[in-house]
Amino acid sequence: MKDIHDSISRATNLANTPAERREAFGELVLRFQDMAFACAFAVLGDAYLAEDVAQEAFVVTWQKLDQLREPNAFPGWFKRIVLTQCNRVTRGIRLQIVPLELAKNSPTTDAGPHVVAEKRDLLTKVLTLIKSLPEDQRLATTLFYVNGYTQADIGAFLEVPVSTVNKRLYTARQRLKEGMVGEFKDNLHRRRPSRDKSFSERVNAKLRPLVSEDWFPVKTMAFAREHTDTPGNDLWMHRRQTFNEARYFRRQYVVEDAGSAQVLGFGSIEQSVYLPRYRLFLITDPHWIWRGVGDLLLERLTNDLREANAVSVSCRDYASQTELLAFLKERGFSEASTVLESRLSLADVELSQFLPAVEKLKEQGIVITTFAEERIRDPQCVEKLYELTVSLEKDDPARSPFTAPAYNAVEALMWLERPYVIPDAYFIAKHGDSYVGISDVSLFEAVPGGLTQGFTGVLRAYRRRGVATGLKMHAVDYAKRHDYRIIQSFNDPKQTAALALNEKLGFKLLFSYVTLEKCLREIVEVPSHIYDQYAGRYESDELRQDPNMIVRNEAGRLTVELIGQKVELFPASEKSFFVKEFYGEVAFFRNEEGKVLRLEFTMPDHKSGKPKVFIAPRVS
User: Is 300 left (phi over 0), alpha (psi -120 to 50) or beta?
Assistant: First the structure.
């Protein structure tokens, strides 16, 4: 057991490099590969399924190895993993399909059809008889004959005394004829994983950085999962190949088969505009995700995220990618959102059918203008738009759980002047001087030749009067006049009214996306009454635009509002918190009586490279 203990110790020691840890785990694979196969074969009676299960069992073992408290208990612990994987397979047995052309051209060394038929008949009888043995005898017999494991090895694996193993083997031999035992032994020897290196190489696939030649197989894997005739599918590849690595952090890898060098999977992390938040991409066939490919990529990328001081990472993929989503959830990711994508082909839209609705708005004194026009006409335009948006979001089923921050002119205008915003395509419904509805199309993550539909909303008093339809028609008209071909819309499934309106206008539902997120820093549990003690107003003379910081306990979640923004504070301890959206940390300080005196807000200073601390005494 000493060598097993040593291999496990090196495989779980985080001080070792990933390569050293995988090499140590490879020693366990080589030692137990035949045993795993034999155990699975005894349960399933199918060599191909048994090999699949053995590989899957090693992948699960690699994932959970650090949970094994007593290394000497590894054989029995590993056996239970193998049996669990067997149960998983028996709940959904898969057909093993071999292409006909491979069977036709396969070379043969058989003595002849009659000899082959006799041997096949004998083997069938042997396997039938083996299956008729009680499970304990079947397991012991299969383990004994697969590769000459000793009774002590078998006993450790089955977690029974050597005497019990001997008794089971003796009883099984009494029921099997000598010739059948020989045939069974020969068949197992021909099938055992240790006959060559292919099994261990598949379990220990090779990971390396991506090179330019890898883009073709990566693109093939990516597009194999999508509707290749959908406009804009090349956008994903275009964005990966034009990513600005000089400005943003990125790491990319592929996993390849150690023997054939076939690319089995692709993984990448990309820094987002919110610097501590990163995007994760994992692309591989579901066949490989559970066989080590997913873990090889995710382990390396997680180490890179720690190197980059990332706070959180998210992965958005099609809801149909159930295996990938399940894989990530098992590794600590949780569902953050679900989004439905719809697209409108502008060539199919006939605007004349909606003209009566637009005329009806005019009869009610409701006109539709744009942000570009209103910004010139009305000095209060930005503030009125902010107040309207806040009112509309209260009725949005997908709204934020937090109250909106107070209006800040600089912050509000900053969002309206983003480079993807088109002022002439940001439409506002007006009744007199009042803003009663908005809808816009923009260049935000738009497909080539397309625009993205933004938020559409109408005040309650003006609903069911055709305002939303009129706003959308102006957006469609703008897109057609400027030679765009597509408008894409992203909606939360809870936004049923918006989805119904889109369907009425001709949008076709294409995809459902799920975003999973994992926080890379530990979030501790803090009692809600502690948040109540921190809630209040703090002032910092160092904040030039607005000295106020408002801390709130909002339904058991702590938030801080400053300079027109509101962010959630995630607890690292009872007094220390961090922000996900940017590199920010907040610490609260008390006096000897326990009264909260001040908070300190720490943010990086990108010019000096040193953190800047804002001290804000509590004022109420």
Answer: alpha
